[in-house]
Fold:
Amino acid sequence: MNIAFRVDVTPAMGTGHLMRCLTLATGLRQRGDQVRFVGRVPDYLRQLLSDQQCEYTGLDAPAAGECGDELAHARWLDGSQAGDAERTARALADRRWDWIAVDHYALDHRWESPLRQLAPRILAVDDLADRIHDCDVLLDQNLYTNADARYHGKVPRPCQVLLGPRYALLRDEFRRGREQLAPRTGAIGRVLVNFGGVDAGNATLRAIDALIATGETKVAVDVVIGREHPFRHDIEAQCSRHGFAVHVQTTAMAELMAAADLAIGAGGTAIWERCCMGLPALTFAVADNQRQQVDDAAVAGLLYAPAAVEGEPMPIAVHLAALVRNPRLLQLIARQGQAAVDGRGVARVIRRLAAGAVTVRGATPSDSGALLAWRNDPSVRLLSRNRALIDPHDHHEWFAAALRNRDRVLLVGEIDRVAVGVVRFDVAAETAEASIYLAPEHQGSGLGPGLLLAAERRLAAVRPEVRMITAEVLGGNERSQRLFAGCGYDVQSTQFVKAVPTP
Structure:
């Protein structure tokens, strides 16, 4: 696949958008995919892109007097969305693209729609849910108590929405580090301080001062900052006086988290890195866009977040002292975090992007034999309402009738002209019931969402009167339950079944 990422690094946006996209891009590069970043990135981060074999094209400056729009974060974009789309299109015009990924709070459907002339599919990475997108996949890796409702009406109907830390874009070092961790005891012998690479409010120095104030002289402290931290020299001087270790632009976060017993830091992707490593954290929202993320993760027991009081400084010292005396609470937070984040989010997202290569066509008489073989495979029969073997004669008669039936839309999914699965829609007025299965050799491949969404688009084209799709899934078929839920289907009822006890 050829995939382009539109990302900026500015004082307002920080480095988080670039780093999570680079994590995804690195996973794609390891598959052999071609990746290019487009935007405005400082020189020292361009080298990081180069190290990961990612192309980079800087955008031309906007025309004089070019104005932004009314989006809440419009000021974070240099110029207008229309102008930025034109500049991005010029930067990508030399190649055919399979996907364009955009991770920018100042871009919405008005930027995404024009870029479809360059790529058939758009991935939007977001966590604000404050604007409308024109995308095929939307990724929000954060955990919210109202996650399912946040993007209703803000993405197209066929869009696949990937929600929650199951899809957290974490570097592979966190997955590997997690597998080697010893159980957390709750005792605090080492603290990790990290408020992100920019930390304009200098929460890092306040955390250092709070650690000094506790008088816990036996506690070792690691402080992580970015090379462009505006208070870098003050932090390094204070750490030097008190024997704290400073790590500037480190690439060893997983190792530091494994060694620590408690983290003090901000929201953002770092929350999911700490959860993956089972590292309990005293966490603060240092930007408005982190506040709900931090609050909802605290409600889920994934971190410890003191309530913010307007106008008051971060109460680091008092809560740090409380956590030192609560080892069982820290053990609980560690277990909850690891249960929520397994470090395999990049692989899951890549499978969904690869599934976007699935196309569908109408079934033909020549497909009858393959569909019979798939349907009679034990792995497919196990999850079917009718688990009996289908007689070949009965199947061929049914198949011929299905092709003649206008109210039965039978579609075959393909990748590079190789059949991978089948979708059937049984239409009644404005409703269609869906049935789907992959060829046995493609089960577990992650192609299910791509097949289903491609089939939905075909249904909308050939039967525009259909307004609702339903599906019945057996209670033990967790894979299909995840498939339909992940593709935006809602559960409307549950059927309970019990055998009558014998006397």
In short: Residues 16-30 form the longest helix (15 residues). The two ends are 62 Å apart (CA to CA). The longest strand covers residues 418-428.
